[in-house]
Amino acid sequence: MADNDFPEIGELVLVKVKEILKTTVFVNLEKYGKTGVISTSEVAPGRIRNIRDYVVVKKKVICKVLRVDKTTGHIDLSLRRVTQKETREEMQKYKNEEVAMKILEMILKEKARDISAKIKESYPLLHEFFEASLSNPDVLNKFLQKEDAEKILTIITDKMKVKKIIARATLSISSTAPNGLSVIKDALKKQKDVKIVYIGAPHYMLTAEDENPKVTHKRLDTAIESITEILKKANGKVEVVKKE
After folding, report:
1. Where do the domains of the chain lie?
2. What is the CATH number assigned to the segment(s) 12-80?
3. Which of 13, 58, 67, 141 is the most exposed place for a label (fewest CB within 10 A)?
4. End-to-end Cα distance, the chain
C-alpha cells in the first residue's frame, strides 16, 4: 500500500494507542502508516473523569474515521461511535488476517509479503482468498506454485473452518383477538429460516445463522417483518425487545 493512501470517512479501522494527553489520544493506523487523533469527546459518551479508563497505551481498538485532511495528513477518529457488535466483527476480521498471514509466511517464508500484496489486488482480505480457495482450489494456483499451493490447501482445509454467523432477536408478541394465541403460533410456525424459542409470555427468541453475515441478518429481518404483518391483521403487536 502506498504511503499516501488514506482511509475513507466512515471506515472502521484498527488503531494502536500511541500517546494519551489531557484532551487527546494519538493512535497509529498501522494499515495506512499514519497517525490519527481521538478527541476526548469522541472517546466515550458523557463526562469522562479519567480518559485512561477507556484507552490504554499500546492497546489496539476499533475506531470510525470522522475526517481526513490529505493536505495536512490529519485524521480525526471516534471510539464512541463504534458499536460493540462492530468492534467484535472487526477484531475477528483482523485476527483472521493474522492467521492467514502466518500461514503464508510458514510456507512462502520471505516471499510471503510480495505474494500477499499480489493476492490483495484481487482479494481485499487474505482470509477471503483462503475461503475462496476452500471452495475452488484452483484459485491458489493463480498466485502460487503448485507445491506451495498444495501445502497451503492442506493447512487451511485442516485449520480454517468457516464459522456460522449468528443473529438473535427477542420479540414481545401479543394479540387482543379472540384467537390471538392461535394466530401467534401460526405466525411463528411459518418462519422456516429461523429457530424460535418460547421464553415466557409474551417473549420469544428468534435465531438465524449462516456463513454469510448478510444472509444471516436478512433471514432474521424477514422473519420479524413476516410475523409483524401477520399479527397486524389480528389486532396484534410485535415489539423488538433486543436484537444482536
Report:
1. 12-80, 85-159, 165-243
2. 2.40.50.140
3. 58
4. 35
CB-CB contact of 228 with 193 (8 Å): no
> Could you tell me the fold of the domain covering 165-243?
Alpha-Beta Plaits (3.30.70)
DSSP-derived letter for residue 65 is E
* pLDDT single digits (tens) 142-197: 999 999 999 999 998 877 665 678 999 999 999 888 898 899 999 999 999 999 99
pLDDT digits (tens, 9 = 90+) for 108-129: 999 999 999 999 999 988 988 9
The Cα 80–Cα 40 span in angstroms is 10
Distance CA 94, CA 83 (A): 17
For the stretch 20-35, pLDDT in tens is: 998 899 999 988 999 9
- Predicted confidence (pLDDT) at residue 3 exceeds the cutoff of 50: no
Distances (CA, A) of 32 to 3, 74, 80, 90: 7, 13, 21, 16
Cell 433471514 found at: 219
Length of the chain, please? 244
- Nearest one of 30, 93, 92 to 58, comparing CA atoms: 30
Rounded to 5 degrees, φ, ψ at 45 are: -70, 155
Beta strands in 119-235, from DSSP E residues, in sequence order? 165-175, 195-200, 203-210
Of 172, 171, 170, 175, nearest to 233 by C-alpha is 175
